[in-house]
Design a protein that fits this description.
Elements lengths: L5 E8 L5 H14 L4 E6 L6 H5 L6 E4 L9 H15 L3 E5 L6 H11 L5 E11 H10 L2 H13 L2 E5 L6 H14 L4 E4 L7 H6 L40 E7 L6 H9 L5 E9 L6 E7 L2 E7 L8 E7 L3 H16 L10
Bound molecules: guanosine-5'-triphosphate.
Length: 343
């Protein structure tokens, strides 16, 4: 009955780090499973060279002439919506140019979840091992900071081009990555030759996948065990640094209780937005939450729009949010309005 949310992956990484190489592998993998992938790609130049390299029959939306994060968020959101409606893919990858700040893309994808059943599954950052080391040693400029940001936001880090560094350098780089991102799994690779199952398996995780949220929260506080990536149970690598939890409501909620819930959101949730139906008002509401300020606006959505809320933040407990929201839904659902207890 319920429609399955469409998985979306963001692929980030510096220019030339190996994103297209990885994308090609992922596309082959999905196709071998008879799935229909689609790609949103953008390039800084006018011609999408990467697009030419990727097989033609994959539906592709291109955003040329600027990087995704510099075009407005709405554009990417619209692009994604159009692609989903037109192509009906089973999975979508957004390849960000080397210059894009992935947080903006996370925001655009979650924006789309308000109107479409899409779900951000993870953010994969490909790191060019040799280039990172060079930048780290010189520690300068905007490039360095952007690379840091891309690493910080990742749910999984691919340390690519390890054929171009020594074993000692690989260790040095892993330590740098760990320092910047204590949560993401680090997968060393040459030409991004990783098992897609292994790579994606660790991502379908607790935080980014609303419906599998329960059961995973206890892992949240576990310390990273420090093993080199890839060998040990992927089930334990569900920590994601920047994460989004998407909640589809099945019932209306009480407006005051919901406002209270938003007020009490954990500090690690820095952004939330959604559409809700209140049990005690006639209309539906769009709510926005940023930097501890909440805003509710009456709306009359055109067409079919689900009641949904997305929460973005850093390693918060998606399971806890989910439990609280389900409680809110139940509270109204399980209590007939007419029944008011007397004394
Ligand atoms: N030596 C070496 N070269 C690699 C590796 N992975 C990719 N390359 C090469 O690096 C170049 C860039 O790879 P791409 O996959 O196009 O990188 P990209 O991140 O998509 O690049 P942009 O589109 O510029 O952002 C290509 O020539 C690849 O063949 C690797 O592990 N080792």
């Amino acid at each position: 009955m319920e429609q399955q949310a469409l998985p979306v992956y963001i692929l980030s990484g510096f220019l030339g780090s190996g994103k297209t190489t990885l994308l090609q592998r992922l596309l082959d993998h999905w196709k071998s499973q008879n799935l229909r992938p689609a790609v949103i790609m953008n390039e800084l130049g006018e011609v999408n060279l990467d697009g030419l390299l990727v097989e033609q029959e994959v539906p592709m939306a291109e955003m040329l002439g600027g990087c995704i994060c510099c075009t407005s968020r709405g554009d990417l959101s619209t692009e994604l919506t159009t692609l989903v409606k037109k192509e009906k893919p089973d999975v979508v990858v957004i390849e960000a140019t080397g210059a894009a700040n992935p947080l903006e893309i996370v925001d655009a994808v979650t924006e789309t979840s308000l109107y479409q059943q899409v779900e951000l599954k993870g953010l994969i950052t490909v790191v060019d091992a040799a280039h990172l080391l060079e930048l780290y040693r010189s520690q300068q400029g905007a490039t360095y900071r952007l690379m840091q940001e891309q690493i910080r936001c990742a749910s999984v880090l691919i340390l690519n081009k390890t054929d171009r560094i020594t074993a000692e350098e690989a260790e040095e780089i892993s330590a740098i990555l760990r320092k910047w991102n204590a949560y993401a799994e680090i997968l060393p690779a040459v030409r991004c030759a990783l098992e897609p199952e292994e790579l994606l398996g660790g991502l379908g995780g607790v935080h980014l996948d609303g419906d599998s949220a329960d059961g995973g929260t206890s892992e949240r506080d576990e310390e990273y065990s420090g093993q080199s990536a890839g060998q040990q149970g992927k089930a334990h690598h569900t920590h994601d640094h920047v994460m989004a939890y998407t909640h589809y409501f099945k019932n209306a909620v009480d407006s005051e209780a919901f406002e209270q819930f938003v007020k009490e959101l954990p500090r690690d949730v820095y952004r939330a937005k959604g559409i809700v139906t209140f049990s005690d008002t006639a209309s539906r509401f769009l709510f926005q939450y940023a930097y501890r300020e909440a805003d509710f606006m009456k709306i009359t959505p055109q067409g079919e729009v689900p009641d949904v809320a997305v929460f973005i933040g850093e390693h918060f407990s998606a399971g806890e949010l989910r439990t609280r929201l389900l409680q809110l839904e139940k509270r109204y659902f399980g209590r007939p309005a007419a029944v008011k207890r007397g004394l």
